[in-house]
Specification:
Elements (H helix, E strand, L loop, with lengths): L24 H8 L5 E2 L11 H10 L12 H11 L6 E4 L1 H13 L5 E6 L4 H8 L3 E6 L8 H6 L5 E7 L11 H10 L5 E5 L15 H5 L4 E6 L12 E4 L2 H8 L9 H10 L3 H24 L3 E2 L6 E5 L4 H10 L2 E2 L1 E2 L8 E5 L3 H24 L1
Parallel strand pairs: 1-11, 3-4, 3-5, 5-6, 6-7
Antiparallel strand pairs: 2-8, 7-8, 9-10, 10-13, 12-13
Helix pairs in contact: 2-10, 3-10, 4-5
The protein binds pyridoxal-5'-phosphate.
Length: 376
């Protein structure tokens, strides 16, 4: 038996593009029947999660018959004490992704505008489109730096949110502290700055800020952080926002009570105090970044100086071929097409061994492409 239907979704959803994630390890392994697959596509922590967090997870398994703490009291206390914030300045969410949706639901009426320096993380556009709001993209400059004057110049009465991703995904560039201050001073007071510092721990330059000092000082800013990157808990789905109290209070109106599961809450509280794991992860990343930068230089490739755990590399017209050939060799990276950058590939920094395998593979692919070109 069957029956046709004419059930239509909201018009706003026509504009919502589904998120296209990097290929998963097992997909590639199965498709290509490879023994070894290396994933350098989603900016995950290559050394794995904090072992302290893993221990807490196994000890928490017996609580799974209970609903999680809707207010994440223990985790908030751990974050507040580690970041010198009040627990009232925090909201815990199912990944920072969920927080972007919640912020959109809280502040955006249909026809409102958000400003997004571009290229950047696609979830910002998703949140706006979901609410029928408009995305006003502002290009980064030639060196992928933020142009504050340009951002301020496109502000209108309908502008509700200005997104700043720093370090920015996919470019790895960042907004220096003095520029953030300039932005905060220049914007009219009806605008909330959404400062996504998901990759803050990897930034090593002196003039970098993760934005939290401006939350402490009471500016209209919400800082997004995640446990998916340096803490190595991407699979658990947990992140948080830090903002002045009134902003947190507003966003709490749209939060589902049990959005963050027991295991994620417990693991995150442990991971944020695991200094050893954090330090080790930073070191592996900084060393890997140097290793890859040097190799790209030697190969004569153009890349963007990154303050993050990935590097945007320009391969030119052969970028897609290189992406495909890396895939055939069991190395998953992110092709730039997603950001309208068909000549670029974004490569996450791996362990020293993974980086070596990647460098070898790129060298040999470049060589065969070169040879093919010469015999044509
Ligand atoms: C990975 C990432 C996040 C965090 O996402 P989760 O939902 O917490 O896994 C947020 N912003 C950017 C720019 C990211 O790349």
């Amino acid at each position: 038996m069957s029956k046709i239907n004419h059930i239509k979704h909201r018009r706003a959803l026509d504009l919502v593009k589904p998120y296209i994630p990097g290929k998963t390890l097992w997909e590639v392994q199965k498709e290509l029947r490879l023994d070894r697959v290396i994933k350098l596509a989603s900016n995950e922590n290559p050394i794995g999660p904090s072992t302290n967090a893993l221990e807490v997870i196994s000890n928490s398994l017996s609580t799974l018959n209970r609903y999680p703490d809707a207010h994440s009291v223990e985790l908030k206390a751990a974050i507040a004490s580690s970041l010198s914030l009040s627990t009232k300045q925090l909201i815990i969410t199912n990944g920072a992704d969920e927080l972007i949706t919640l912020i959109s639901e809280t502040y955006l009426e249909a026809e409102d505008e958000i400003i997004v320096p571009s290229p950047s993380f696609s979830e910002y556009d998703f949140g706006a489109h979901l609410m029928g709001a408009k995305v006003v993209p502002v290009p980064l400059d030639n060196h992928y730096q933020f142009n504050i004057d340009l951002i301020v110049s496109v502000v209108t009465d309908r502008t509700k949110l200005v997104y700043i991703c720093s370090p920015n995904n996919p470019t790895g560039t960042y907004l220096p502290k003095s520029k953030l201050e300039e932005l905060l001073q220049s914007l009219p007071d009806h605008i909330l700055v959404v400062f996504d510092s998901a990759y803050s721990h990897f930034a090593t330059n002196e003039d970098y800020t993760n934005g939290l000092e401006y939350v402490r000082a009471g500016f209209p800013i919400i800082v997004l952080q995640t446990f998916s990157k340096i803490y190595g808990l991407a699979g658990l789905r947990i992140g948080f926002g830090a903002a002045p109290r009134n902003i947190i209070q507003s966003i709490l109106h749209v939060k589902e009570p049990f959005n963050v599961n027991n295991l994620a809450q417990a693991a995150a509280a442990s991971a944020i105090t695991d200094e050893e794991h954090i330090e080790k992860s930073k070191q592996v990343n900084t060393a890997g970044r140097d290793q890859l930068n040097k190799a790209f230089q030697e190969l004569g490739l153009h890349y963007t100086e990154s303050m993050s755990n990935f590097i945007l590399v320009k391969f030119g017209p052969v970028a897609k071929e290189i992406y495909m050939q890396l895939l055939m060799k069991g190395i998953i990276v992110r092709y730039g097409n997603t950001w309208g950058m068909p000549e670029h590939i974004r490569i996450s920094i791996g362990t020293p061994e993974e980086n070596n395998i990647l460098i070898e593979a790129i060298s040999s692919i470049l060589l065969t492409i070169q040879l093919k070109g010469e015999t044509k």
